[in-house]
């Protein structure tokens, strides 16, 4: 069987979906399989809409593909044949106010057509499966739940940079600084405004001990607003620097190479996103031995793989209502003021993160391919 993997998403700077496509394709290389997995890089340069959906579809057919996998939510409109898509989340359909305008063609045409056309749809969580069934009336048997994985380099014992000479000019602090960490593309649904408000509400004693470090490239709109809101006219803007002089450091985009050390050296990871199809940064932090405060929805996404563990997810993560600044603040205080709790969360988090591997994600994905021919 010849399987084509559309990797055109990798022509952009890698973030969530791009990381999924990259790590999945890399893990395929280590699988012992008789199938031919063909990595399709896509057209060079910026991809005009019709080049993607007509010319690229034609090029794919010339490869003699038996099954095509679109790992970034869509398939070329004019591709015909057995196909699989990975649909990461449906947030734009549930909360369109969180997203910039100008995505009509994708949301109204390309994604719905891809959902209808695909022979099988892979989703990372039961929550996304439920959304897909409710919003698009997709039958359960057409959906496969396959969680994302965590790279080995994130795990505490494997970190080359931990507690050594990891340095990033954006940090502007000596290695060993104590800090609370937020990682994510800066956009409204990541809930950064409430994280900052919760940090400001901490006691002076705690804020003297711990800075808040915000790592992430700028997405769209004003990430320092609370949805629902009206998008700001200029995408990717911040309203000044509200953290200046308040123990808040803006690190901007942090490379994949530097992320493990950033997690490893942090005292607490805070990620109360309003909606996620999965929530991979939470698992990466747990793998690095960092205690986590996150939203209940993300905790439930991760709980899917805990059937063989004794503990509840709510004993490993501190989960909160992401709409409550006070709950986020209390979560920070509970973990930072209780070293025994933080240590317990750290150890159990590493154990749980070990349940999520890219090799397992790749193996189960190949099983999906095999069912399509």
Automatic annotation (TrEMBL):
Q: Name one Pfam family in it.
A: Glyco_transf_4
Q: What's an example GO BP annotation here?
A: lipopolysaccharide biosynthetic process
The terms under GO molecular function for this entry are: glycosyltransferase activity
The segment(s) forming the Glycosyl transferase family domain are 172-303
The keyword Transferase is assigned to this record = yes
Highest taxon, organism lineage? Bacteria
- Where is region (Disordered) located? 223-243
Keywords from the UniProt entry = Transferase
PANTHER family reported in the protein's UniProt record:
GLYCOSYLTRANSFERASE WBBK-RELATED
Q: What is the name attached to this protein's record?
A: Glycosyltransferase subfamily 4-like N-terminal domain-containing protein
Q: Which organism is it from?
A: Candidatus Doudnabacteria bacterium RIFCSPHIGHO2_01_FULL_46_14
């Amino acid at each position: 069987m010849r399987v084509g993997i559309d990797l055109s998403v990798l022509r952009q700077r890698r973030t969530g979906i791009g990381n999924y496509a990259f790590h999945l394709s890399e893990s395929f290389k280590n699988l012992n399989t008789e199938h031919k997995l063909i990595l399709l890089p896509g057209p060079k340069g910026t991809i005009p809409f019709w080049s993607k959906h007509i010319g690229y579809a034609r090029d794919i057919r010339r490869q003699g593909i038996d099954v095509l996998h679109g790992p970034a939510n869509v398939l070329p409109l004019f591709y015909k044949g057995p196909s699989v898509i990975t649909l990461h989340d449906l947030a734009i359909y549930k909360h369109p106010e969180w997203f910039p305008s100008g995505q009509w063609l994708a949301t109204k045409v390309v994604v719905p057509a891809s959902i209808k056309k695909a022979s099988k749809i892979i989703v990372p969580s039961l929550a996304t499966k439920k959304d897909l069934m409710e919003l698009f009336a997709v039958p359960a048997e057409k959906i496969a739940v396959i969680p994302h994985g965590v790279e080995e380099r994130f795990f505490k014992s494997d970190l080359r940079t931990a507690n050594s000479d990891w340095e990033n000019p954006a940090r502007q602090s000596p290695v060993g600084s104590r800090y609370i960490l937020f990682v994510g593309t800066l956009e409204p649904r990541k809930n950064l405004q409430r994280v900052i408000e919760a940090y400001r509400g901490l006691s002076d004693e705690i804020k003297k001990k711990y800075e808040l470090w915000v790592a992430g490239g700028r997405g769209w709109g004003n990430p320092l607003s609370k949805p629902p809101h009206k998008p700001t006219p200029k995408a990717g803007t911040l309203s000044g620097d509200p953290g200046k002089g308040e123990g808040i450091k803006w690190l901007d985009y942090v490379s994949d190479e530097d992320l493990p050390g950033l997690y490893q050296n942090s005292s607490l990871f805070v990620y109360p996103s309003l909606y996620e199809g999965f929530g991979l940064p939470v698992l990466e932090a747990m793998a690095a031995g960092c205690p986590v405060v996150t939203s209940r929805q993300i905790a439930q996404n991760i709980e899917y793989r805990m059937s063989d563990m004794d503990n509840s997810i709510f004993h490993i993560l501190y989960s909160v209502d992401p709409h409550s600044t006070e709950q986020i603040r209390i979560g920070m205080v509970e973990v930072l003021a209780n070293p025994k709790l933080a240590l317990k969360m750290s150890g159990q988090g590493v154990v749980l993160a070990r349940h999520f591997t890219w090799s397992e994600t790749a193996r189960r994905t190949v099983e999906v391919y095999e069912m399509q021919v």
